[in-house]
Write a structure and sequence with these properties.
Elements (H helix, E strand, L loop, with lengths): L7 E6 L8 E7 L4 E7 L6 H21 L4 E8 L2 E3 L4 E4 L6 E3 L1 H9 L3 E5 H12 L8 E6 L3 E7 L2 E2 L31 H4 L1 H12 L5 H9 L3 H25 L3 E6 L5 H14 L7 E4 L6 H13 L5 H7 L3
Helix pairs in contact: 1-2, 3-9, 3-10, 5-7, 6-7, 7-8
The protein binds zinc ion (ZN).
The site of zinc ion has 6 residues, from loops.
């Protein structure tokens, strides 16, 4: 089914993965963002967060109405453990959402179909449809933010698994005797390669508190402590990505997240992967092309699809832009 070009949905991203707050937009049938809105994400109580989300959605819906092309559905990208089918948020790191029926709340408040999608899946769908993943049918998105997440596109479809948690690579154990992780385990990928962990490891080594981005810049400038921290992060990522590649045979690994990483900083990752991947085909590694808009676009794509307005992912890939 083709999407009516003037068909519109609301795409919202509350992940904060791509730098800070809550983001939303009206998205049309061609995948264009028609109106962008940003807001600070309330992180203390669920009522404030939901209110802020609803307010942003209502403003976007009103704008669409004024322009004579009303929004027909809403999609929301949410981090954490969610049930996409029921619209339930079970647990979300860094957000005050625990067992909240967010999909139902949005349906009731906005009087339109509302759908949730895991934030990494939203990013992967968007990069696959409109960004770095356009040339391939099998790719993996790795998101480096306050945690480390990923989502897999296999033969054009998001791999969800039996419980919807496929691709949760952040808690694969690299060092069983390593640092305690937020999940209760030790030495998970996240304890090496999340933005928080990179900053914390450097602070522990050099007794200086700086941002992860600055650690990467210092590593590039030859600072030994920073280089060690960044190399350990890349090593953990390479190990887990190589393992994933053996399982899923993806042609492309797209990296995205909160850190602005110069491509030189990521160059060693290709070499580390080449050392770990010998038998199967080595994937290309690229930085995401859509940046902070990926979550919004993926949320919109799922809204189009689930509201039976058309297969946005397929159509956006076919379009010439
Ligand atoms: Zn963990």
């Amino acid at each position: 089914m083709t999407i009516e070009p003037r068909g519109r949905v609301i795409g919202l991203d509350i992940s904060g993965t791509f730098g800070g707050g809550m983001r939303g937009a009206l998205v049309d049938g061609t995948g264009s963002l028609l109106a962008r809105k940003d807001a600070i994400t309330p992180r203390i109580n669920p009522e404030d967060l939901i209110e802020s989300l609803v307010t942003m959605a209502i403003r976007l819906a009103e704008q669409a109405q004024r322009e004579g092309a009303p929004a027909s559905a809403i999609g929301v990208a949410v981090p954490g453990l969610i049930n996409e089918a029921s619209g339930m948020v079970h647990r979300s790191p860094n957000l005050p959402l625990q067992n909240v029926p967010l999909g139902q709340i949005l349906r009731d408040r906005l009087k339109m179909p509302a759908f949730l999608i895991h934030d990494a899946s939203a990013g992967a769908i968007a990069e696959y449809a409109l960004g770095a993943g356009r040339p391939v049918s099998d790719m993996m998105l790795v998101v480096i933010g306050s945690g480390v997440g990923s989502a897999v596109v296999s033969d054009g479809r998001i791999l969800r698994g039996a419980h919807g948690t496929a691709g949760e690579i952040g808690h694969i154990v690299i060092d069983p005797a390593g640092i305690l992780c937020g999940c209760g385990g030790r030495g998970c990928v996240e304890t090496f390669a999340s933005v928080t962990s990179i900053a914390r490891r450097y602070t522990m080594a050099a007794k200086e508190a700086i941002l992860a981005e600055e650690v990467v810049a210092k590593a590039a400038a030859g600072n030994p402590a920073a280089a060690r921290v960044w190399n350990d992060a890349l090593g953990a990522l390479a190990t887990v990505i190589a393992t994933a590649v053996a399982l899923i045979d993806c042609a492309l690994v797209v990296l995205s997240g909160t850190m602005k990483l110069p491509s030189e900083a990521l160059a060693p990752l290709g070499a580390l992967l080449a050392k770990r991947i010998n038998l199967v085909q080595l994937p290309r590694v690229e930085v995401g092309a859509l940046g902070e808009t990926a979550g919004i676009l993926g949320a919109a794509a799922i809204a189009f699809e689930r509201a039976a307005m058309g297969d946005a992912t397929h159509e956006w890939r076919r379009s010439s832009r």
